[in-house]
Amino acid sequence: MLENCKSAQERWGGVSDIIDRWLKERQQVLVVYCQLSEILDDYSAETGNTLRTLCQLMMDYVSAGHFEVYDQLVQEGREFKNETALTEAKTLFSQVDKTTEFALDFNDKYQEVDDLDSLPEDMSKLGELLATRFEAEDRAIEVLHNAHKDQVA
Questions:
Q1: What residue spans define the domains of the chain?
Q2: Which of 17, 45, 73, 131 could share a disulfide with 144, CB 3.0–4.6 Å?
Q3: pTM: predicted TM-score of the whole model, two decimal places
Q4: Cα four-point dihedral sign 128, 71, 66, 84
Q5: Statement: 2-152 belongs to CATH 1.20.120.1370
Q6: CA distance 142 to 96
Q7: What is the per-residue pLDDT across 10-26, written as a single tens digit (0 to 9) for each?
Q8: CB 72 within 8 A of CB 15
């Protein structure tokens, strides 16, 4: 039994570190999003640089979620045979997927910063979708990871 506990700690304790690093990336996305929101009316070199930074951070964040974090969360739910959480997570990740499409389109559209006419509207929609995404991700962390913390410790 001690070996199983040690194995669980080794296996799932690291997920917290992955999630923490990923949430710091999310915070960076929000900081740059807010910076860009403040300078939207002043289309300057700073606007273009901040926009490119936002796109890069957002793509890194989205990619880490899809290719690292979500897989770890689902695997943890499976390991603990938490079918209720896995079912809820499927719905949550479906919501996240809808926001991913817009984030990818936003990135593609603003890779070149030569046409910023629709940027204010796109930023508004991006803000709404990021809020939806963050809520779904937070809930997935809650049901797939935090629900098992006592069993891992």
A1: 2-152
A2: 73
A3: 0.84
A4: negative
A5: yes
A6: 15
A7: 544 567 888 899 999 99
A8: yes
